[in-house]
Write a structure and sequence with these properties.
alpha/beta
């Protein structure tokens, strides 16, 4: 048992508008407890914007700016420069955005900020769809998943945002899950020690959008990692890969069986998804090995 020392004064207040059992709120609670009070948050339209509440009120105990859906990275860049101009270099600027505002509508803005290596921490709260507008698909929606706009199942594979952002050669990119809390907190703490663009994508099982019972969010988060459907890893400077949970201990079918959005799948579909996960895992393992080899060579 690992005891976690977190801020006892809640940075996310009770009485917010999250659904019962919401993994979004649970994740942000621990992100904010780790980041602390010397921070400002950018929150675009998303489930998190609903949880935070409408300006000028907010359920967060730090200042919040709500920009348009596509402008989170630009807003964070501007806030960072304004704080630097005031000499407030230690104040963290964070973004709390969904996958719709990251993978899709906000991607151009995020890519531009990453190219300039703007100094903020970008948290993508990835619930794999546009959940607060009816659970429509996004480019983060996995293959075969049933959504409000793909009732027969999504016909395309999920975009690999972590690899795309790592290709920008930013200082730090990682995946995380509140189902593996020590790893999540360590990555937030690590990101806070670095300057430049830092991007952490958290898997957020959506109870309503995924068809999960109110008490199954954490189970789904853990199964996603344990099956390899959502690997936990980090990439430093676009080159050094570290796999943080190297063992796959259950088949993808265990993860799929929890979710209503996959109940239409045939055994052949499940086998196809298992093959996709196996392929992605093999490619990730290859990158990890290449990074370790390069690091060893540099030490010689």
């Amino acid at each position: 048992m690992i005891k976690l020392e977190l801020n006892r004064d809640p940075m996310l207040c009770s009485g917010h508008a999250a659904c019962p059992g919401c993994i979004d709120a649970l994740s942000v609670r621990h992100i904010l407890a780790t980041v602390g009070s010397n921070a400002m948050a950018v929150i675009p339209p998303s489930c998190m914007a609903v949880i935070a509440g409408m300006q000028p009120l907010t359920s967060l105990r730090i200042p919040v700016y709500q920009p348009t859906l596509e402008a989170s990275a630009a807003a964070a860049s501007g806030l960072r420069r304004a704080l630097d101009a005031q000499g407030k270099h230690d104040t963290q600027v964070i973004v709390l955005a969904g996958d719709g505002g990251t993978y899709d509508i906000g991607f151009q803005c995020l890519s531009s900020a990453a190219e300039r290596n703007e100094d903020f921490i970008y948290f993508c709260l990835d619930n794999e769809g546009y959940m607060n507008t009816g659970a429509q698909r996004s480019s983060s929606t996995p293959h075969f998943a049933r959504t409000g706009s793909t009732p027969a199942g999504n016909s395309s594979r999920k975009k690999n945002l972590t690899e795309i952002m790592a290709a920008h050669d930013v200082p730090y990119v990682a995946t995380a899950s509140v189902g593996f809390l020590p790893d999540l907190i360590r990555k937030v703490e690590r990101a806070m020690t670095i300057r430049g663009t830092r991007i952490i994508t958290l898997l957020i099982p959506c109870l309503d959008g995924w068809g999960l019972p109110d008490d199954a969010g954490l189970t789904a988060a853990r199964y996603a990692v344990e099956s390899g459907a959502f690997p936990l890893y980090e990439v430093e400077n676009g080159r050094r890969y570290t796999l943080n949970h190297p063992a796959r201990t259950r088949p993808v079918s265990d993860y799929l069986a929890l979710q209503g959005r996959y109940r239409h799948l045939t055994p052949a579909d499940i086998d196809s998804l298992q093959a996709e996960v196996d392929d992605g895992w093999a490619r990730l393992a290859q990158r990890v090995a290449m990074g370790q080899g390069a690091a060893a060579a540099a030490l010689q």
